[in-house]
Design goal:
Blueprint: E1 2-3, E2 6-18, E3 24-36, E4 38-43, E5 51-57, H1 68-80, E6 85-91, H2 101-116, H3 123-131, H4 139-142, E7 146-149, E8 154-157, E9 166-171, H5 178-182, H6 194-197, H7 205-208, H8 213-220, H9 222-233, E10 238-241, E11 248-252, E12 268-273
Parallel strand pairs: 5-6
Antiparallel strand pairs: 1-4, 2-3, 3-7, 4-6, 7-8, 9-11, 9-12, 10-11
Length: 276
């Protein structure tokens, strides 16, 4: 059985306050993006062990045991004693890009196992499992435009469709650590909530919708700022860094001819139409 975990972008991201536990409260809007990994699970009846992970495509740094698809499998295996499996993961969503690729893989793994082994878990129960794997993992269970608050784990649906718009996303050969992104953040409650801003015409988002991480990331990595500026020059109606970076996306009107651009030989370019 094969499934295709998709990326997400953040429409605005406001860091509202620092919590006593060291985390930060925020508000953002998660929006599905049609850049996809591929994930397949087959029952494995030979040899010993519970799982084997076969990874291809873009490189994933880290130990197998720390991969979120493995953690998702082990979580459900503890509850339901699942059969041994071969896990095939093809990575197309870049890591360290603010696109939620690892979280998407984890959530889609839970959905895949639920369906393949007839566990009959509801979306609400799957969200509870996903939340244990990461703050934004649960978003990918229902995978619809969502307003998120708290540490990015309290969700409200947003009646928003950008189906007619095109996107252009650039991922430079830069890794932005979460620590770097938070290094100069100054938490502040915005005067206008993203729930209100997103109801405005998209042409007005540029004036009111911001990603607070840009304030700390742009001075450290000027090329990321340059990408955003270039997307506006190319005609984007709205452009922003996604999450804590380093990818930057632009939203374009449907009649726009999206160009080929590059920010270094190892930069990645994705473009297409929004599908939700």
């Amino acid at each position: 059985m094969i499934i295709f975990p998709n990326a997400k972008i953040n429409l605005g991201l406001n860091i509202t306050e620092r919590r006593s536990d060291g985390y930060h409260n925020l508000e953002t809007i998660f929006y599905p993006l049609p850049i996809e990994d591929a994930l397949e699970v087959n029952v494995w009846n030979k040899g010993t062990g519970k799982f084997r992970l076969h990874q291809s495509g873009l490189e994933i740094i880290g130990e197998t045991e720390n991969n979120l698809v493995v953690k998702a499998y082990k979580m459900l295996d503890e509850e339901f004693n699942l059969p041994p499996v071969d896990i095939y993961l093809f990575k197309h969503i870049p890591s360290g890009a603010g696109l939620g690729g690892g979280s998407a893989d984890a959530a889609f793994m839970l959905k895949l196992l639920n369906k393949k082994f007839c566990l009959n878990l509801t979306d609400e129960v799957l969200e509870e499992y996903a939340a244990r794997l990461g703050a934004d993992c649960a978003f990918f269970i229902k995978n619809k435009p969502t307003y998120a608050e708290g540490i990015g784990n309290r969700f409200s649906p947003i009646p928003l469709s950008l189906r007619e718009y095109k996107f252009l996303l650039v991922k430079p050969d830069i890794f932005v650590s979460t620590r770097d992104a938070f290094s100069k953040i100054r938490p502040c409650h915005p005067q206008i909530s993203l729930k209100e801003i997103v109801q405005l015409p998209i042409e007005e988002w540029r004036k009111y919708m911001f990603n607070d991480f840009e304030e700390s990331v742009f001075p450290q990595f000027p090329v990321i700022r340059e990408i955003k500026e270039e997307l506006y020059k190319l005609g984007a109606v709205y452009a922003s860094m996604s999450g804590s970076g380093s990818s930057v996306y632009g939203l374009f009107k449907p009649d726009t001819l999206l160009p080929e651009i590059s920010f270094g030989k190892n930069s990645l370019l994705y473009k297409g139409e929004l599908t939700i």
